[in-house]
Amino acid sequence: MDSPFSTSTTLTLGFFLCLIAVQSQEDVNSGSQSQSPPPVSPPPPPPLQPPPPPPIPPPPPPPLLQFQPPPPPPPVSPPPPSPFSPPPPSPSPPSSTSPPPPRKLSPPYPKSVQDHRNVSHHERENHNARHHTPRGKLSHTPKEKKLNLGKKIGLVFVGIGVLLQLFVVTFLVIKRKQLLKAEIRR
Questions:
Q1: How high is the mean pLDDT of the chain?
Q2: Fewest CB within a 10 Å sphere: which of 12, 87, 112, 159?
Q3: What is the pLDDT of residues 67-81, one digit of tens each?
Q4: Is residue 2 part of a domain?
Q5: Taking Cα atoms as reference points, which of 155, 138, 135 lies closest to residue 147?
Q6: How many H-runs (helices) and E-runs (strands) does the chain carry?
């Protein structure tokens, strides 16, 4: 049988190895959080513009008469092409050379908005990119510290291992004391 010294040394060594594993896992998690980009400051509020006037509602349709004309007859389909005739020409795709619709001129901006217009094009693109990113893809902030499922399961097993080792060490210490008392009585 092993001596109590070697058993307690083995248990203590195992306990410290578990502590080192847990500590290194925490260091990895905190290191990955420190390497993440700093949280983005909230974008400035958009310039205030007067609300557009409410649209004018369309005039109500004339009252419906009880008599409605019958629907038009369906168009007559062309006869099927003969096997010896050349195939009909395919419709040409619509040309994309039509000019885009002209933009409406905006009303003059207040002074604060004109200053905002002097911001470089690059800064505006960055602002728009940050403003339009979906919420699910934002970088993790420190308060949103989340572990994936594998890390959670691993930490649970490490915790269970540490608790089991503590229970075993406690049990062995109690049994050792009982055995020492029993030997002294002899």
A1: 68
A2: 87
A3: 566 666 666 665 555
A4: yes
A5: 155
A6: 4, 0
182 to each of 104, 175, 176, 185, how far by Cα in Å?
100, 10, 10, 5
Q: What is the pTM of this model?
A: 0.26
Q: Is residue 13 part of a domain?
A: yes
What radius of gyration do the chain's Cα atoms show? 39
Q: Tokens 């410290």 belong to which residue?
A: 16
By residue count, the chain amounts to 186
Q: Tokens representing 123? A: 């800064």
What angle, rounded to 10 degrees, do the helices at 149-185 and 4-35 form? Answer: 160
The whole domain housing 179 covers: 1-32+149-186
Nearest-angstrom CA–CA distance, 182 and 186: 7
The total number of structural domains in the chain stands at 1
